[in-house]
UniProtKB/TrEMBL annotation:
Organism in which the protein naturally occurs: Roseisalinus antarcticus
Record EC number: 5.5.1.2
Protein name: 3-carboxy-cis,cis-muconate cycloisomerase
InterPro entries noted in UniProt: Fumarate_lyase_CS, Fumarate_lyase_fam, Fumarate_lyase_N, L-Aspartase-like
Transmembrane domains' residue ranges: none
Enzyme kind, highest EC tier: isomerase
Similarity field: Belongs to the class-II fumarase/aspartase family.
Alphabetized GO MF terms: 3-carboxy-cis,cis-muconate cycloisomerase activity; lyase activity
SUPFAM superfamilies documented for this protein: L-aspartase-like
Residues in coiled coil: 118-145
Fumarate lyase N-terminal domain location: 24-300
Length: 451
């Protein structure tokens, strides 16, 4: 097995989508860093920091030159960062030393790498937003279409009271609109340039031009201006990791429920086709719901690393920075894959009403105990009603008789009409399902319009 499933030719289509994975390839990183070097030169030329003719030559070369990522390996193994060797090869390939001498002027490796990361995170966030909108729309359709479809609500794995499948779908998506709002807040924090120089002071440029270079650099890349605090401010990346953990955790709850709802003996939903077994051809394993759980667990573990990496000692810190490299790409790939899988499941899964009805009425009617207690409490003290129903439930288990028959026998004068109907005991489930559908659809459509 490969050291990382995300890089495995065998497993990559299970745990990631290829377009997101491509953003974290060596070639994508090199291309992004070249773009950043070109934009930096362009901004410096406009501000008079370097000759404009050299700035133009560097910018053109950054668009045209190709650098083999493998050719950076030996030097990066020594220096930890690829930028020094990248800049050296860039200068050599330009074959114009009078211009090439200005490549990477005044910046430091972390400026180039952090800004190149922001360029790629812009695409990651766009993909995540697109899939989040698709997921909310799919769950909204399920919630609305099945707002009144009764099924057993379960607590501690036991039947509790009836709910609706629409309300369950709404529960899966309940956190998503707020998470979408938080993505909007994260974007301007993450999508910024970094230009602070060797120790955060940008001292290689005159103070009166340094700010102009920063502004031009950001404009050239379509990113926000460099954040205050320099290289050691890592809260935006930690916030992204935390957000991804909350998203994947929400989706894992959906996956866990679907695993239970598809198990033998329950079988309340049908999943999109997947999960065949070589040895047991009758099986359709809930592979995609299981994957949601695995990716959430992986993301949560890596989030711990990202939070620990907040501690960048002094002005820059190698250990914390390398920890980010080891963790953030997998978090991003797992995030987008989780959203993709959840959206496919939500769109194509089908509830099985006959099975849901059978699981409500198991022959005992015990699921209606709370409703009976409430009805009896209309004509007797609530504590007495509770005691009476508790006694009936004990008889139900001991005698093997149904609670509805025992109730009618014990309380022949009580009005129990309609009480033992699942549809009559849904409470706020239909309204909650429809309310979620409306809010999720509105939020998703707003995201789509902006995109």
């Amino acid at each position: 097995m490969a050291a990382s499933l995300f890089d495995s030719a065998i497993y990559r289509d299970l745990v990631t989508d290829r377009e997101t994975a491509a953003l974290f390839s060596d070639s994508a990183e090199v291309r992004a860093m070249l773009i950043v070097l070109g934009a930096l030169a362009r901004a410096q030329g406009a501000a008079g920091v370097i000759p404009e003719i050299s700035a133009g030559a560097i910018h053109r070369a950054s668009m045209e030159l190709q650098i083999d990522p493998g050719g950076l390996a030996r030097a990066t193994g020594r220096d930890a960062v690829a930028v020094p060797e990248l800049a050296r090869q860039f200068r050599d390939l330009m074959q114009a030393p009078e211009h090439a001498q200005w490549v990477h002027f005044g910046a430091t490796s972390q400026d180039i790498m952090d800004t190149a990361l922001a360029l790629r995170l812009r695409q990651v966030l766009a993909r995540a937003e697109d899939r989040l909108a698709a997921l909310m729309l799919a769950l909204a359709r399920q919630a609305e279409a099945h707002a009144t479809l009764p099924m057993a609500g379960r607590t501690f794995g036991q039947a509790a009271t009836p709910t609706s499948f629409g309300a369950v779908a709404a529960g899966w998506g309940g956190a998503l609109p707020a998470l979408a709002d938080r993505l909007d807040a994260l974007r301007p924090l993450l999508l910024t340039t970094q230009l602070a120089g060797s120790a955060g002071t940008l001292s290689a440029m005159a103070p009166e031009t340094a700010q102009a270079v920063r502004a031009g650099f950001a404009d050239a890349l379509g990113l926000g201006p460099a954040r205050q605090g320099g290289h050691a401010v890592r809260q935006p990346l930690a916030a992204l990791a935390s957000w991804a953990t909350e998203v994947t955790g929400s989706l894992a709850k959906m996956g866990a429920d679907l695993m239970l709802m598809t198990q033998t003996g329950i079988a309340e939903v049908r999943l999109p086709a997947s999960g065949g077994s070589a040895a047991m051809p009758q099986k359709q394993n809930p592979v995609m719901p299981s994957l949601l759980g695995a990716l959430a667990a992986q993301t949560a573990g890596l989030n711990g690393v990202m939070q620990a990496a907040l501690v960048h000692r002094q002005q820059r810190d190698g250990a914390a920075w390398i920890s980010e490299w080891l963790s953030l790409p997998q978090i991003c790939m797992g995030l987008v894959r989780s959203l993709d899988v959840a959206a496919d499941l939500a769109r194509d899964l089908a509830p099985l009403p006959v099975r849901m009805a059978a699981n409500i009425d198991d022959g005992t009617g015990g699921i209606f105990a709370e409703a009976l207690q409430v009805r009896l409490g209309e004509t007797m003290p609530p504590t007495e009603a509770q005691a009476q129903v508790k006694a009936l439930c004990a008889r139900m288990r001991a005698e093997g008789r149904g609670l509805p028959d025992l109730a009618r026998e014990a309380f022949p004068e009580a009005d129990l009409d309609g009480l033992f109907s699942p549809a009559a005991q849904l409470g706020l489930a239909p309204a909650d399902a429809r309310a979620f559908a409306a809010s999720a659809r509105e939020r998703a459509e707003a995201m789509t319009r902006v995109a």
